[in-house]
Design a protein that fits this description.
Elements lengths: L10 H12 L6 E5 L6 H13 L14 H7 L6 E3 L9 H9 L12 E5 L7 H12 L5 E7 L7 H4 L3 E4 L5 H12 L3 H10 L4 H8 L2 H16 L5 H11 L6 H21 L11 H10 L2 H19 L4 H13 L1
Parallel strand pairs: 1-4, 1-5, 2-3, 3-4
Length: 329
């Protein structure tokens, strides 16, 4: 499990939690909310580890060396409980068996007992209502961490009795620097991955180290560099090829979006140094010269519209064909 100083960004949340730990002013329940990859689980693990640490640092972080820290890191601490579920949702029996019936038992070796509920927004209404009484009157040693990607799916009564901590997107410069320093990525590749992930460092790490990401980028560039010359048979062949990767279509569309944002930025600034696809300067400058501002903005809107259509289960081939035809117009 992570320490607070291992977490990139999220300084406001980290400061709030560390101050609470140092002043012994920890809430009985937190909702840690944000998209997957934004650092929610790292924050939950850092808080858990630090609460149970036997020898905290001067800054209030976990030492990482004591028996408790080692037990937490090996997922073998007797005072940490992860709520697991086998079905698509977290049912009332899951909450009763793993949390409510257990929480009255005092900590085995620490001053706190921590319950972590991943995907807490997947709790059924009955499960949330069962949890509510425990959140209202918890034992003084208990800390309950609800990890969500959509806190609004929780009952208002549950939300009102927890401290809500929202993770924030990180600046692309911070993510780029991390990828270069820690994953030894080439600067140009790191910039594309950082721009692609839209502030989500977990997503950037996954794709930066994935061969799929490199292939997706190359496929996308091959299309976009020659799209103005493509005839209908070429378009249909590309759609057929793309249909083999339906599960990653959002990532392809995000890469297209980055390309046309580069085209727009170059048209505005004529500065190649600010481009994410800097090595494609020639093709980007040509497209910027051949399209007016309205054309480029319409393409960006069309990419967003394609995402909406696909989310609404519009026919895949139709949605992509409409997008490509809009780009060619």
């Amino acid at each position: 499990m992570a320490n607070f100083n291992d977490i990139i960004g999220q300084d406001k949340v980290k400061k709030h939690l560390l101050e609470g730990i140092k002043t012994n002013n920890i809430s009985h329940a937190y909702i840690i909310n944000g998209e997957t990859g934004s650092g929610r689980k790292l924050l939950a693990s850092a808080l858990t580890k630090t609460l149970l640490c036997e020898n905290k640092t001067e800054l209030g972080d976990a030492c990482g060396h004591c028996k408790s820290c080692l037990q937490v890191e090996s997922n073998n601490h007797p005072d940490v409980r992860f709520i697991v579920h086998e079905k698509a949702s977290i049912g009332v029996d899951d909450i009763r068996d793993q949390l409510i019936n257990d929480i009255t038992i005092k900590p085995y070796s620490s001053n706190h007992k921590v319950y972590i509920i991943p995907d807490a927004d997947q709790m059924t209404e009955q499960a949330q209502n069962a949890l509510l009484k425990t959140i209202e009157e918890p034992p003084e040693y208990a800390v309950i961490l609800l990890i969500t990607d959509n806190a609004k799916n929780l009952l208002q009564t549950v939300q009102s009795r927890c401290v809500l901590l929202n993770t924030k997107p990180l600046d692309t410069e911070i993510i780029t620097e991390y990828l270069i320093k820690n994953l030894q990525m080439e600067p140009e590749q790191a910039k594309i991955a950082a721009g692609f992930c839209q502030g989500n460092v977990g997503k950037a790490i996954d794709f930066a180290s994935s061969e799929d990401f490199h292939e997706m980028k190359e496929d996308t560039l091959r299309l976009l560099k020659r799209i103005d010359e493509m005839e209908l048979p070429d378009i249909m062949a590309f759609i057929k090829e793309l249909s083999r990767h339906k599960g990653k279509i959002t990532e392809y569309l995000d890469l297209m979006l980055l390309w046309y944002r580069d085209v727009l930025m170059f048209k505005v600034t004529k500065d190649a140094n600010i481009l994410l696809y800097r090595e494609e300067y020639k093709a980007i400058s040509q497209q910027a010269a051949s399209r007016n501002y309205e054309d480029i903005e319409n393409i960006i809107k069309a990419i967003d519209k394609a995402k909406i259509r696909l989310d609404a289960n519009v026919n895949f081939d139709t949605a992509i064909e409409l997008l490509i035809l809009t780009i060619k117009e």
